[in-house]
Specification:
Layout lengths: L1 H28 L6 H34 L2 E2 L6 H17 L5 E5 L6 E4 L7 E5 H6 L2 H17 L1 H31 L5 H50 L1 H12 L10 H6 L16 H9 L4
Parallel strand pairs: 2-4
Antiparallel strand pairs: 1-2, 3-4
Helix pairs in contact: 1-2, 2-6, 3-5, 5-7, 5-8, 6-7, 7-8, 8-10
Family: Belongs to the peptidase M48 family.
Membrane topology: Multi-pass membrane protein
GO molecular function: metal ion binding; metalloendopeptidase activity
């Protein structure tokens, strides 16, 4: 975790420096020169806001998701079903060399499960009552393997860091684009006449640009989210066999239960998002996930 964060921040700093120089050159070529030092301060402040906010969400993810989904932790199994669930997660965690995560159940008719937590040693794996009722033991085991693969791959951390970088660039480019457009609009106006209207126009343009760049940024984050789902499917197949994972995904295809309302963050954590519009989906279509597993060698 510490090494990953160190190299992450090194990468971010390098990207910000290169980005600042590139933006400065482009703006100068367009006739709107920017002070590189001021630009770096702007990008740095946006980075603190964008990345800092994402890290706060990461550290609070476990408790906030537990509250929103009303997850009941299994501290001591009270029946055979809970005992089987805890024992199965422990068995898969041992195979992957993971510390035993917290285990929880939440009441929902849909077939779903998720993993969260800010690092591999502080994870939570939770499953819905609908999944436990509708799937057979092999299918449930495959789903648990998928969720523990997310933990093993550090997906919660990586997705948060990707979101932080995207947030930084969305805020930075929105600010710069708004400033340039405002400068173009105010050419030829006196400073006294344009100062108040310029400030209002700049703020309005900033929010418009933030929306536009936000759509592009969301598409990037969702692409990475879909990529990590393929990896988690493969991680489960490697440990438990691809047939069980394919069978579990086939069962998810037939899930016609009412969809439980979730935030976008929670949707990204779940095995089955049931979204529409692939570009902004947190998960690939189930048919594509099944095909990817079928094409894997045994």
């Amino acid at each position: 975790m510490g090494v990953r964060l160190f190299f992450y921040f090194l990468t971010v700093i390098a990207i910000l420096i290169v980005g600042a120089i590139t933006i400065s050159i482009i703006c100068s070529a367009l006739g709107y020169p920017l002070n590189t030092q001021d630009l770096m301060v702007c990008i740095g402040s946006m980075a603190v806001y964008g990345i800092g906010g994402s890290l706060v969400n990461l550290f609070a993810s476990k408790s906030s998701v537990m509250r929103s989904m009303r997850v009941q932790l299994i501290s001591q199994p009270e029946n055979e079903g809970e005992k089987w669930l805890v024992d199965t997660i422990r068995k898969i965690a041992d195979k992957k060399g993971l510390k035993m995560p917290d285990v929880g159940i939440y009441d929902a008719p849909e077939m779903n499960a998720f993993a969260t937590g800010w690092n591999r040693d502080s994870a939570l794996v939770a499953v819905s009552t609908g999944l436990l009722k509708a799937m057979n033991p092999k299918q449930v085991e495959a789903v648990l393997g998928h969720e523990l693969s997310h933990v093993d791959n550090g997906d919660m951390v990586t997705l948060t860091l990707v979101q932080g970088v995207v947030n930084t660039f969305v805020l930075t480019f929105s600010s710069i684009a708004a400033s340039i457009i405002t400068a173009v609009m105010n050419q030829g106006k006196s400073q006294s006449r344009g100062s108040v209207s310029s400030g209002m126009a700049n703020n309005a343009l900033f929010y418009v640009m933030q929306t536009l760049f936000g759509f592009l940024g969301t598409a990037v984050v969702m692409w990475f989210s879909r990529y990590r789902e393929y990896r988690a499917d493969a991680g489960s197949a490697d440990v438990l066999g691809k047939d069980s994972m394919i069978s579990a995904l086939e069962a998810l295809k037939g899930d016609s239960s009412p969809v439980v309302k979730k935030s976008r963050v929670v949707k990204a954590l779940c095995i089955n998002s049931r979204d529409f519009g692939e570009l902004f989906m947190t998960h690939p279509p189930l048919d594509k996930r099944i095909k990817a597993l079928q094409e894997r060698p045994n």
